[in-house]
Design a protein that fits this description.
The protein is α+β, with helices and mostly antiparallel strands and 403 residues long. It is 39% helix and 12% strand. Bound molecules: flavin-adenine dinucleotide. The site of flavin-adenine dinucleotide has 18 residues, from strand 1 and helix 11.
């Protein structure tokens, strides 16, 4: 009888659990260097299981990541500190996966996932925030087949920590604003890149202004076709909203956690009115958490769509209302603030800090990743199908726009 080849094992939860256990047996967390462990996890396809083989995944359904994560957590395995590398994981990686060349995917995704290389996002400019497509940073072809970039970006989170940036710049001013943009990967250590801290309401400088002066970017670091940058940026922005609004949280894992704890531990602070408001916000937080879970499951079927805008809207409103309630509950104590010296934090730590920090930092939630007003427009037009806002500049060349 001829040998029949063994049927490939089905990648279901049981198989992934078995693969993770085999991996843990070969790389016991207690005896393995953290970075070696993370690199080996990537190479074994257990980093993000829905990515292709060879790029940290196994081509498995995205929903099965939870199976791998649970096994690794139970074994005390180190993680890649996702809060520190959120822009890389949540925005740069899906864009590189969708638009990158095989060489770009191979070069960037592994150190991005292990956290060896931090990423930032050079999108917003002083004259282009909500109206991002109006951006004025210019990229012109240089003499050696590269691009020369000049301009100013602003509100760039983590630019001071980043090795790489996703960057959009104008390559053709003679066509309407959405059409003349190209998407690049910028090396933040290159000559001509200058990063200056911007201090925010919390006293910290989480973000920066970035000045780009004659920065040379090889054409091999262009993502997508010349002039197609707006389309590429939509992938980044849709993923950004899901990354901000759709984080996986255990019950009471978000802002509601600290306020619920204070409520339980400090009966002397309770009033009837605060009780009613806390109950309502607790339910809202739980609904929002479960909706985010459902949105993540829908992602299994494809790329995030405009629904992420709704999720991010709810997240911003909830964080601001809950942190406001917490400050009221604590009274004078809620106004105490530990330190006002300018710090350069490595991550946004919502739950590990004091109530005053949460209150101040959550103000930015309705601005970052698209303001709540702009997200309402997206929900109105692309989810509910309501008439679009009048846009008189759609067919006007960017160079002829009033500025
Ligand atoms: C904490 C934080 C981190 C950030 N990190 C980054 C980053 O890493 N990289 C990056 O590129 N950017 C970053 N940003 C910038 C952010 O994306 C922009 O601030 C945001 O898109 C708004 O742009 P703007 O500040 O220019 O405000 P504007 O666009 O000038 O808006 C001003 C006001 O007008 C309203 N408005 C504007 N247009 C409309 C409209 N069509 N309909 C109704 N209302 C409208 C807005 O809602 C807002 O209230 C960050 C911002 C914050 C707060």
């Amino acid at each position: 009888m001829p040998d029949t080849p063994a049927a490939p094992a089905v990648l279901d939860a049981a198989r992934l659990r078995a693969l993770t256990r085999e991996f843990l047996a070969a790389h016991p967390p207690a005896g393995t260097d953290r970075l070696d462990f993370l690199r080996a996890r990537f190479d074994a396809g257990l980093a993000w299981v829905h990515y292709p083989e060879g790029l940290g995944g196994l081509g498995a359904p995205r929903s099965l990541q939870a199976v791998v994560d649970a096994e690794l957590e139970a074994a005390g395995a180190p993680d890649n500190d996702p809060r520190r590398i959120g822009i890389g994981l949540g925005m740069a990686a899906p864009t590189i996966l969708q638009y990158g060349t095989p060489e770009q995917r191979r070069r960037f995704l592994r150190p991005l996932w292990t956290g060896e290389e931090v990423w930032c996002q050079l999108f917003s400019e002083p004259g282009a925030g909500s109206d991002l497509a109006a951006l004025g940073t210019r990229a012109v072809p240089g003499d050696g087949g590269d691009w020369v970039v000049d301009g100013q970006k602003v509100w760039t989170s983590s630019a001071h920590l980043a090795r790489w940036a996703i960057l959009i710049a104008r390559t053709d001013p003679a066509v309407p604003k959405h059409r003349g943009i190209t998407y690049f990967v910028c090396d933040m250590t290159d000559p001509g890149v200058e990063v200056r801290p911007l201090r925010q309401i919390t006293g910290e400088a989480e973000f920066n202004e970035v000045f780009l002066t004659g920065v040379r970017i090889p054409d091999s670091r262009r993502l997508g076709a010349v002039g197609e940058g707006w389309r590429v940026a939509q992938t980044t922005l849709n993923n950004e909203r899901v990354a901000i609004g759709g984080m996986r949280l255990p019950r009471e894992g978000g802002m509601i956690g600290p306020v619920a704890r204070t409520w339980r531990e400090r009966p002397e602070l309770r009033t009837h009115d605060l009780h009613q408001r806390l109950l309502k916000l607790w339910v809202d937080a739980e609904v929002s958490r479960l909706t985010a879970e459902r949105l993540r499951q829908q992602l299994v079927a494809g790329q995030p769509g405009p629904e992420g805008a709704g999720m991010k809207l709810a997240f911003a409103r909830l964080n601001q209302e809950i942190s406001g309630l917490e400050v009221e509950l604590l009274g004078e104590e809620g106004l105490l603030y530990d330190d006002w010296t300018m710090r350069r934090p490595e991550l946004v730590d919502f739950t590990g800090r004091e109530a005053g920090y949460r209150y101040l930092r959550s103000k930015g939630n309705s601005i970052e990743g698209g303001t709540s007003e702009v997200l309402l427009n997206i929900v109105a037009e692309r989810v509910l199908g309501l008439p679009a806002e009048p846009r008189t500049d759609k067919d006007v060349a960017w160079k002829d726009l009033a500025r």
